[in-house]
Specification:
Structural class: alpha/beta
Order of helices and strands: EHEEEE
CATH topology: GMP Synthetase, Chain A, domain 3
Oligomer: single chain
CATH class: Alpha Beta
Strand content: 25-35%
Number of helices: 1
Distance between the termini: 49 Å
Number of domains: 1
Radius of gyration: 14 Å
Length: 86
């Protein structure tokens, strides 16, 4: 296995489609989405309830194609529970 490297845009998309359940289990939070950063890059946004942002790690490690990838996470206290549909 190679050394850890930072995630690129392709890695982030791969995580959302193929590894999202593993990431959710590791961080204990369900709402994740791909979001553009202020500098034009991409990050995974994690939505949490107010007061819980500090509990989200800044990074998680995921193995993609034999490479260990460091995925940056950005916690936002903007989670709102939607009412159940009837």
């Amino acid at each position: 296995m190679s050394a850890t490297r930072p995630a690129n845009a392709r890695d982030l998309v791969t995580v959302l489609y193929a590894h999202v359940d593993a990431v959710r289990r590791e961080i204990g939070v369900a709402p994740l989405r791909l979001e553009r950063t202020n500098d034009g890059g991409l990050t995974l946004k994690v939505s949490v309830r107010e007061g819980f942002a500090a509990e989200v790690p800044r990074t998680v490690l995921v193995t993609i194609g034999g490479d260990l990838i460091e995925i940056s996470l950005e916690a936002h206290e903007d989670y709102e529970r939607r009412p159940k549909r009837r």
